[in-house]
Design a protein that fits this description.
Oligomer: heterodimer
Largest sheet of chain B: 4 strands, antiparallel
Strand content of chain B: 15-25%
Order of helices and strands of chain A: EEEHEHEHHHHHEHHE
Helix content of chain B: 40-55%
Shape of chain A: elongated
Strand order of the largest sheet of chain A: 3-7-6-5
Radius of gyration of chain B: 20 Å
Largest sheet of chain A: 4 strands, parallel
Helix content of chain A: 55-70%
Shape of chain B: elongated
Number of helices of chain A: 9
Radius of gyration of chain A: 43 Å
Structural class of chain A: alpha/beta
Number of strands of chain B: 4
Structural class of chain B: alpha+beta
Chain lengths: ~350, ~110
């Protein structure tokens, strides 16, 4: 089995080509970079190589460039095989089935639901206008209450002052002026009152208070009208918002439908390849057990190896040196994984 | 109580998380809606939802419906009489014809 080609050999059409900033080039179905010195720290890490595989060409001047077919959905799940590899098993298996073009009974419904969702327009609701209307209604209400209290206070004062000043004919008569119809304490002289204000001053206060009362009453009437207008506007905007909510509810139902169908499709895809995956996984088990003895390997690594081996992978997978060695060396790893490899 | 209804997946998710985290303030959950206690904290949670999701959240303030105080006598009596009717398949307006009970159309026109 071919190992990495020497720089003088020409790459064949299906080979991966890895080009470094300093010009060094390696190609082959297996690109073994285990012995290669890094030009600068980190430029030759597995992460850098993985980025290069995903990004393709052209690459930044200080990074390696990888010429190879672009990665597919399986590759997204298992781009790198190393002791610390993690894998979303269901997602990966679903991607394997999709890559093979396996169809499910829900494919048609899912496509239709997605189309309907794309077509649906979520009714525009002017949230800002609603917010402003709510605030305006609240302010108008608070202002109305405030003025209502003010009017009541002033009215109370006006009434008190009227009681004091409403005895013009008896102003000089000190005799008892108690009137049978009076309910208040009227035994005191007119002109005297509980507030300690004398006659003329009371008259002045009364006219001032009366003036203030009619001013406050006028303002209360304005503000109360405002409040009604604000409430009506808010009501109108709320009604409009309701239509927008109808659209959004419909959209939400569609989104849920798409989500449920996507789940159903994924479950069907996973089921289609599950048996093959388990077989592949147990084939790797014995090899990885030996490897796992020498260091911590994530439980997902075995899964990832099995996934790559059963999937039609065309973009190169970056394999850790330790994993390649655990699988019996680059050639053996290539045979087992059936995918282009970059070993580092 | 405060009724919160969501209109997007993200708003629904936020409501779900809030209900899980603040069970003591949740009176009832219904999937994409919930009834919250009418405390400052309930209002706080409602305000947070509105801040985050704007028009994708609807918030109403509810009161228990007292049919004796909140509905006209005629409406309440019509409902009671209709539920006691002899023939189950009679639609309401047919039942009400020839009686003093209010017609559906008229009731729909009048706000409480």
């Amino acid at each position: 089995m071919t190992a990495t080609k020497s720089p003088s050999e020409r790459p064949s059409a299906s080979d991966v080509v890895v080009r470094f900033p300093d010009g060094r080039t390696y190609c082959g179905p297996i690109v073994d970079l285990r012995e290669i010195e890094a030009g600068s720290p980190g430029s030759l890490s597995r992460a850098a190589l993985r980025r290069a595989v995903v990004a393709g060409c052209p690459a930044p001047a200080d990074a390696p460039a990888v010429e190879a077919p672009p990665p597919g959905p399986v590759h997204e799940c298992a781009a790198s095989l190393a002791p610390e590899t993690r894998l979303d098993r269901r997602r990966a298996l679903s991607a394997v089935a999709a890559a093979r073009g396996i169809e499910t009974p829900h494919d048609g419904e899912l496509a239709a639901a997605r189309r309907a969702l794309r077509r649906s327009t979520a009714g525009a609701v002017d949230a800002e206008a609603l917010r402003a209307a709510r605030r305006r209604a609240a302010e108008a209400g608070a202002e109305t209450e405030r003025l209502r209290e003010r009017v009541a206070t002033i009215r109370g004062r006006v009434n008190a002052l009227r009681e004091i000043t409403a005895e013009p004919e008896d102003a000089v008569d000190n005799t008892d002026v108690t009137d049978a119809t009076d309910s208040g304490a009227r035994g005191s002289n007119p002109g005297d009152d509980d507030t300690g204000v004398s006659g003329a001053a009371a008259e002045a206060s009364l006219s001032e208070a009366t003036r203030r009362l009619s001013e406050a009453t006028r303002r209360l009437s304005e503000v109360a009208t405002d409040r009604v207008a604000a409430a009506q506007r808010l009501d109108l905007l709320e009604r409009r918002a309701r239509a927008g909510r109808d659209d959004r509810s419909a959209r939400l139902r569609l989104e849920d439908r798409v989500g449920n169908l996507e789940r159903a499709v994924r479950d069907a895809r996973v089921a289609a390849v599950e048996a093959e995956f388990r077989d592949a996984r147990s084939r790797f088990a014995s090899r990885i057990d030996r490897f796992e003895d020498s260091g911590a390997a994530s439980p997902d690594l075995r899964d990832a190896l099995a996934v790559v081996s059963i999937a039609p992978v065309r973009a190169p997978v970056v394999v850790a040196a330790a994993v390649a060695e655990g699988l019996g060396g680059p050639a053996s790893a290539f045979e087992l994984l059936d995918a282009p490899l970059v070993i580092r | 109580m405060l009724l919160v209804v969501t209109y997007s997946r993200r708003a629904r998710e936020t409501l779900r998380n809030a209900c899980r985290a603040h069970e003591e303030t949740v009176v009832r959950r219904f999937g994409r809606a919930a009834l919250l206690e009418e405390t400052e904290y309930g209002a706080f949670l409602a305000c947070r939802l509105r801040e985050r999701h704007g028009a994708d959240v609807q918030i109403e303030r509810t009161e228990p419906f007292n049919e004796f105080a909140d509905a006209p006598d005629a409406v309440r009596e019509a409902a009671a009489a209709y539920e006691r009717r002899d023939s189950p398949s009679t639609p309401y307006d047919k039942f009400a014809a020839g009686t003093d009970h209010p017609r559906s159309a008229a009731m729909r026109e009048r706000e409480l």
